[in-house]
Design a protein that fits this description.
Length: about 400
């Protein structure tokens, strides 16, 4: 790495998608952002926004057979803006990796041995790690000389005490198959809990925060003095809160019942709970905007949307109560991600009735729209309720840059 190398490319590889951001860590500025969708199909699409040049968004359609083709297309777009991947200013590539197991507690420079370890985790993250591995292989092939760093969704949660991370099942079976609570969205929980402390003018070590990451996937975490002590997602991202398409918490016997009584296969149950449950399963929509619109329109359809909303809120309240008990003292509750940052009715409903726990929302503050971290609790509240926009790409870039510039 040269002294002038301050840029980091962040890659988030999904099974058929590749999201990327190029940041300059000199001032944390975003130089370019983009997304390739439908990789492997005839209709792959690349949307590239060159923020550094202030140029217009560019869209390219056409078959991109695999992640290698997609990354080459991204590299060509960046080169067209004078931001090519061969630039000496590029310090590193940071990869989002969903599952790091117990092994990876920190961001890690990727070598062959690390890649092998990430591959060993595929059985516990069959939906996510393979795509992340493909992204890493592709990027390494393109720039073999450049440091590449894996930043794990699970890492922030590895501080959980054993009594929070272990399921109450036979220990030998659990250990043989690495079954335990790992938790996900860790870069977001880390970033948001730190930002929340800053909003309160405190050091992270001084505050206890409940973070509610409410996107299409959703998870809660209890963070005590900057360290995660519990989180709602488990072995996989299926556990916990009601999500866009995932059920969250459910009696595990439901899965036996679906197989034995409803005659569903393993894959069908997996698909039902991961893709056809949560908000979409309850009311046919997983976008909170649409659900609110239907509630406002009323009638029978509105009642169906209202029930989905109520189930979503009820689960949030249960976690707020549980994590208040786990933390003992709560200084702040932070709402983040698509729903948490934008849906004022969700924030209002989740906190309603929790005065006994020192939590309240001020209607005027809650109605404010902003990209900045902000308090929505009334002046003098015992617990600060806040909206704290997350930035997983910036967190990945910062962790990557810190590691390679150390
Ligand atoms: P993910 O990263 O998990 O795909 P996001 O954090 O981007 O998801 O959140 C996406 C979700 O945020 C959408 O499905 C929608 O429910 C919700 N959302 C986005 N914008 C708004 C808004 N203005 N009002 C209410 N909900 C919103």
């Amino acid at each position: 790495m040269t002294a002038t190398a301050t840029r980091v490319l962040v890659l988030n590889s999904g099974s058929s998608s590749l999201k990327y951001q190029l940041l300059d860590m000199h001032d944390a500025a975003r130089l370019a952002v983009g997304l390739v969708e439908r990789i492997g199909e005839e209709t792959s699409r690349l949307v590239h926004t060159p923020l550094a040049t202030g140029g217009a968004k560019r869209e390219t359609e056409g078959a991109m057979a695999d992640h290698a083709a997609a990354l080459k297309a991204v590299a060509a777009e960046l080169a067209a803006d004078g931001l090519g991947l061969d630039s000496p200013q590029l310090a590193a590539i940071g990869h989002r990796v969903v599952h790091g197991g117990l092994k990876f507690t920190e961001p890690t420079v990727i070598d062959d041995a690390v890649l092998t370890e990430i591959e060993r985790l595929v059985p516990v993250a069959p939906l996510h790690n393979p795509a992340n591995i493909t992204g890493i292989r592709t990027a390494r092939a393109l720039r073999p000389d450049l440091p590449q760093v894996a930043v794990f969704d699970t890492a922030f949660h590895t501080t959980m005490p054993e009594h929070a991370a272990r399921y109450a099942i036979d220990v030998a079976t659990a250990d043989a198959h690495r079954i335990r609570r790992y938790g996900f969205h860790g870069t977001s929980h880390a970033y948001v809990s730190r930002k929340t402390a800053a909003l309160l003018g405190k050091d992270p070590s001084e505050v206890n925060v409940i973070v509610l990451h409410l996107g299409n996937g959703a998870s809660a975490s209890a963070v005590a003095g900057g360290r995660c002590v519990d989180t709602s997602m488990g072995l996989t991202p299926l556990e916990g809160l009601v999500m866009g398409t995932r059920s969250g918490d459910i009696d595990p016997a439901v899965t036996f019942h679906l197989k034995r009584v409803a005659g569903m296969s393993e894959d069908e149950v997996d698909e039902l709970l991961n893709k056809k449950s949560g908000l979409i399963g309850l009311c046919g929509d997983n976008d909170m905007r649409e659900i609110r619109r239907r509630i406002d329109a009323g009638g029978e359809d509105g009642a169906r949307a209202q029930l989905a909303f109520d189930i979503y809120i009820h689960r949030l309240k249960k976690y707020l109560g549980a994590y208040t008990a786990v933390l003992g003292r709560v200084d702040a509750v932070a709402f983040t991600a698509g729903v948490g940052e934008n849906a004022a009715p969700v924030r209002e409903a989740a906190i309603a009735g929790l005065a006994q726990m020192g939590m309240a929302v001020d209607a005027d503050r809650n109605a404010v729209r902003s990209d900045e971290p902000r308090l929505i609790s009334p002046e003098g509240s015992r617990v600060a309720v806040a909206v704290v926009p997350t930035d997983e790409e910036l967190e990945i870039a910062q962790q990557t840059y810190a590691l390679v510039s150390a």
